[in-house]
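Project outcomes to date are best conveyed with an example. Our students and postdoctoral researchers have been running inverse folding experiments weekly, and each run begins with a structure described purely in tokens. The record below, which covers 389 residues, was selected by the lab manager from last quarter's runs and is presented without edits.
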């Protein structure tokens, strides 16, 4: 029996535990292969697409399912449990569709195109923001990437770093500044097949090795006038929107919760099957391993409770939660890292061996710390807020 679809034809995601577990298992079956090769994880992306998980946040007015942040978090946790690289690619696309659902800002032609392409296969989108010299935009500064006015639109020039998705992207959302007499900061919606786009394969990272997070150069990329989306000033000052967490940004911690769950499952599997000769029974039957398993579970439960508790407060319209979201993300990150590190420390060499998935989970979960706002900036901002300085 085929999956139910929207009127437009997008699959309505089945978010039952059984359906999500099936997608997790399918994606996990190729995760190690793509981690080793560094290739775009096409099999995992296709599985996510068939389940309707890459278009889950497309608004109902565009014929999509229109799912919100909590359902998105469940999807990304399931994908992260299978393959963190697949989940990161999905998170970026789901965030872009969610942003369009909240505030239509794409050129109509471009968004119609990405939806058409999404009907038949993965059509990935990502915000391309970091630069080799500037670093993370959320830490301040203006981009060196420039949108120059032309007679009929814009010409885009610049060099970006850490552009997740690489050549698998269908559209780039590029952070840039205009060359107008009064410069404006914003994003340009860029079709990935435009002339003037060159990829530089720089990604050789500890974790998320299949995410294809390479450098990209834009050299006189021609775009229409409505491709530029200005970021409004706050009190006359530019403030990067990624400097504080919002509900839509919780897709990233959600996927690393999935990595922690995968590590917990790997630990359980070893504990149940490993029978040291000196012990004569599975190590799961020892009090020490039981206590360690409990500690891992406590960290996973804490992260999941923080994640969904914060999003429930957002859904309920709690005005106080928005100021707390950045430090909630910090605590989720601490918990998922602690869960995986606890599992690895208890198992020693086995967990650090490349043929075992725990080694990959450790590398992947450490990447949670790079997503803005980073821990030091989030804590400093929280400190200034409560100290009123």
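After processing, the design step wrote out the following sequence:
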């Amino acid at each position: 029996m085929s999956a139910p679809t929207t009127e437009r034809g997008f699959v309505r995601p089945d978010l039952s535990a059984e359906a999500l577990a099936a997608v997790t298992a399918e994606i996990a079956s190729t995760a190690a292969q793509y981690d080793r090769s560094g290739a775009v994880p096409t099999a995992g992306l296709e599985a996510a697409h068939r389940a309707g998980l890459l278009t889950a946040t497309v608004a109902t007015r565009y014929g999509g399912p229109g799912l919100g942040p909590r359902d998105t978090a469940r999807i990304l946790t399931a994908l992260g449990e299978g393959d963190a690289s697949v989940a990161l690619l999905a998170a970026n696309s789901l965030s872009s569709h969610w942003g369009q659902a909240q505030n239509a800002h794409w050129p109509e032609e471009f968004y119609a195109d990405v939806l058409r392409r999404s009907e038949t296969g993965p059509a990935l989108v990502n915000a391309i923001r970091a630069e080799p010299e500037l670093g993370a935009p959320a830490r301040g500064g203006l981009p060196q990437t420039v949108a120059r006015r032309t007679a009929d639109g814009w010409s885009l020039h610049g060099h970006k770093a850490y552009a997740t998705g690489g050549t698998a992207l269908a559209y780039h959302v590029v952070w840039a500044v205009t060359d107008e007499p009064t410069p404006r900061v914003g994003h340009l919606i860029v079709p990935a097949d435009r002339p003037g786009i060159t990829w530089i394969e720089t990604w050789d990272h500890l974790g998320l090795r299949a995410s294809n997070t390479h450098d990209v150069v834009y050299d006189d990329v021609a775009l229409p006038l409505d491709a530029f989306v200005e970021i409004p000033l706050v009190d006359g000052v530019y403030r990067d929107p990624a400097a504080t967490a919002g509900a839509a940004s919780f897709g990233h911690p959600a996927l690393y919760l999935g990595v922690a769950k995968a590590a917990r499952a790997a630990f359980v599997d070893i504990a149940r099957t490993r029978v040291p000769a000196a012990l004569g029974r599975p190590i799961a039957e020892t009090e020490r391993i039981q206590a360690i398993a409990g500690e891992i579970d406590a960290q996973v439960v804490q992260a999941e409770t923080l994640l969904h508790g914060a999003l429930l407060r957002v859904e309920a319209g709690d005005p106080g939660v928005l100021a707390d979201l950045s430090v909630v993300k910090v605590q989720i990150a601490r918990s998922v890292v602690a869960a995986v590190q606890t599992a690895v420390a208890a198992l020693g060499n086995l967990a650090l061996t490349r043929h075992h998935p725990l080694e990959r989970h450790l590398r992947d979960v450490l990447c949670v710390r790079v997503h803005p706002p980073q821990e030091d900036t989030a804590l400093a901002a929280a400190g200034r807020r409560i100290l009123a300085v």
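Residues 178 and 184 are 5 Å apart (CA to CA). Residues 287-315 form the longest helix (29 residues). The training component of this project remains on track.
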